Amino acid sequence: MSALKSILEENGLQNVLTYIQSGNIYLKTELEKKDLERQLQQIIKDHFHLDISCFVIEPTKLEQILQENPYCNGEEPNKVFITFLDAIPDSNLIADLKSIDYSPETFFINKDILYYHLPMGMAKSKYNNNFFEKKLKLKATGRNVNTVLKMHQLLK
């Protein structure tokens, strides 16, 4: 992550801070969200030869996402995931997804944010980013609530 931090700074991004090895980056810029996403994707492609989607989440949006988490009633935060979608899913695809029952695993979609709870943990789960990307036909990236909370704390 230190190499990525250096490259981002060399490309004019300011106050760059990385958190763990999952691609979480904090920075300051005057760029619009979509422009920053494109720039980050291009920098990563040029320097690391990886073609990955980048998601920019503004601090106020992150705060809102945490406040709207439906799984904050005693569920273990390492078993609750917040997934950022690159668009609002099609309602027909959501309906198809809801028809699949993987109890006790549950999920909830609020616009372009997907929350899901894995009471038995991630290791044996049917739910993961790849599953939701395929079912919703969208790009997604997610973190467990502990990581999202830590990201939020670092912003303050």
Automatic annotation (TrEMBL):
Q: Tell me the classification of the organism that encodes this protein.
A: Bacteria, Pseudomonadati, Bacteroidota, Sphingobacteriia, Sphingobacteriales
Protein name, UniProt field: DUF1697 domain-containing protein
Which organism is this protein's natural source? Sphingobacterium kyonggiense
Quote the Pfam families the UniProt record gives: DUF1697
**InterPro entries xrefs:** DUF1697
